[in-house]
Design brief:
mainly alpha; Integrase_catalytic; hpI Integrase, Chain A
C-alpha cells in the first residue's frame, strides 16, 4: 500500500478518484513490478486529468470520451523536444507509447466491470483492421504500427566501438555483456557479484530482474571475460564487499549501485558522440539476437537465450535477419531468379545488343 501512496503523491489526481486509487492498490498488492505500477499510474493519471478538464466522470465515461483522450495524446507536443529520436504517430506520442497509455485505462475499466460498476469497457480490445466500421469488434482505438527494431550497420557499429574504447573499463564491460548476453537494461544493471561464474563464463539472470520473471543462465565470450576480469580488479579498489556488480564512481554516489538512469545517460552520451542518435540501451540486445538468427540458431534456442516467454517475440529477429526469406528465395527460385538477375547485370541483352 505504501507504494500506491507514493504514486498518489506523485500524481495527486489518483487520490481524488477513489476507484482509481483502489485499482492501483490492487495491482500493487498483487506484487507487480514497481516500474509496471509506475507506468500504470502515469497512464491512468493522464486520463483522469483529461476527464477532470472536460468535466467527465471516468466511472461512467463512454467510448467517445476515451477517444478525446487519444486525440489529446496524438496532438500533444513532446516534453523531450529535440531529444525525440523517432516520432511515428504524427505530431504527438509515438505509436508504441500511445498503446502503453491505453493499457492502464483499459485495465481500470476491466476492474470497474468486475466490481459491477459498468457493463462494458469503452477502450475495447482487438487489432486495428483497415476498412472495418468504427464499432467493429476487432478494431482498436489506435492503429497498431508494428516496426522492426533499428540496428546499426557494421560500419556504424565499428564507429561506436571507436568511441567506446575511450570509456572507463566499467562502461566497456557493461556494453560487452549487454551485447554478448543480449541483456535488457534492468538485467544488466541488476547483476550481482555472485551471479558470475567465471570458470564457465556464464551469468545467472535472476527471475526478479527479468521482464518475464523467469531465471536463465547465459554465456559470455572469452574477450568479454578478460575485460570483466580487469573490471573486477578495478571494482576491488572501490569496494571489496559482495553485492551489486556495477558501482557508481561519481562523487555524489561513490560506491553505490549503478542506477538504470545513469547507464542510460552513458549510452546516450556515447551514441551522440558516435553520431548514432537511435542507439539505445536495448540496441545491443536487438543486434545480438539478429546476429544469432543470421548464424542459423533455431527459433526456440534464441527465445531461450533472450528470455522470451513465447517465440512470437523472437520472430522479430528472424524477420530482421532476413534469414527465412533468403532461404526460401534460394530454394524456390534459385535457377530462374539467378538467370533474371544475371541478365540485368550483363552489358547487353540476350541477343547481344546494347540498349541506347
Amino acid at each position: 500500500m505504501g507504494s500506491a501512496v507514493v504514486l498518489e503523491d506523485k500524481w495527486p489526481v489518483l487520490g481524488r478518484h477513489e476507484r482509481a486509487a483502489e485499482w492501483l492498490r490492487v495491482w500493487t498488492d498483487l506484487g507487480r513490478a514497481p516500474r509496471t505500477i509506475d507506468a500504470y499510474a502515469r497512464g491512468l493519471a493522464e486520463y483522469l486529468l483529461v476527464c477532470e478538464r472536460e468535466g467527465i466522470d471516468p466511472v461512467t465515461a463512454n467510448r467517445l470520451h476515451v477517444v478525446a483522450f487519444v486525440k489529446e495524446l496524438t496532438t500533444r507536443p513532446s516534453r523531450r523536444g529535440s531529444n525525440v529520436v523517432v516520432l511515428d504517430s504524427g505530431t504527438g506520442l509515438a505509436n508504441a507509447t500511445l498503446q502503453q497509455r491505453l493499457v492502464p485505462v483499459r485495465l481500470f475499466y476491466d476492474y470497474l466491470i468486475e466490481e459491477g460498476l459498468r457493463e462494458s469497457n469503452p477502450v475495447g480490445r482487438g487489432r486495428y483492421t483497415p476498412g472495418r466500421r468504427f464499432g467493429g469488434h476487432q478494431r482498436g482505438l489506435v492503429p497498431r504500427i508494428v516496426k522492426l527494431p533499428w540496428i546499426p550497420s557494421e560500419q556504424q557499429w565499428l564507429g561506436l566501438l571507436d568511441v567506446v574504447r575511450d570509456e572507463p573499463v566499467r562502461n566497456r564491460v557493461m556494453l560487452a555483456l549487454a551485447y554478448d548476453a543480449a541483456l535488457r537494461r534492468e538485467e544488466l544493471c541488476s547483476l550481482r557479484t555472485d551471479d558470475l561464474d567465471p570458470a564457465h563464463r556464464t551469468l545467472r539472470i535472476r527471475a526478479e530482474t527479468t521482464k518475464t520473471r523467469r531465471e536463465r543462465i547465459v554465456p559470455y565470450s572469452a574477450p568479454t571475460g578478460v575485460l570483466l576480469s580487469g573490471y573486477l580488479a578495478h571494482r576491488a579498489t572501490i569496494s571489496r564487499a559482495r553485492g551489486p556488480l556495477f558501482l557508481s564512481e561519481s562523487r555524489r554516489n561513490y560506491g553505490e549501485p549503478l542506477s538504470l538512469w545513469t547507464w542510460s545517460k552513458v549510452i546516450r552520451r556515447v551514441a551522440l558522440t558516435a553520431d548514432l542518435p537511435r542507439f539505445s540501451t536495448h540496441t545491443t540486445r536487438h543486434l545480438c539476437m539478429t546476429v544469432l538468427a543470421r548464424m542459423g540458431w533455431e527459433l526456440h534456442a534464441i527465445a531461450s537465450f533472450a528470455g522470451h516467454r513465447s517465440t512470437e517475440s523472437t520472430m522479430t529477429y528472424i524477420h530482421l535477419s532476413g534469414r527465412d526469406l533468403a532461404e526460401k528465395l534460394s530454394r524456390g527460385m534459385e535457377q530462374i531468379h539467378s538467370w533474371r538477375v544475371d541478365m540485368l547485370v550483363r552489358p547487353g541483352h540476350a541477343t547481344g545488343t546494347v540498349a541506347r
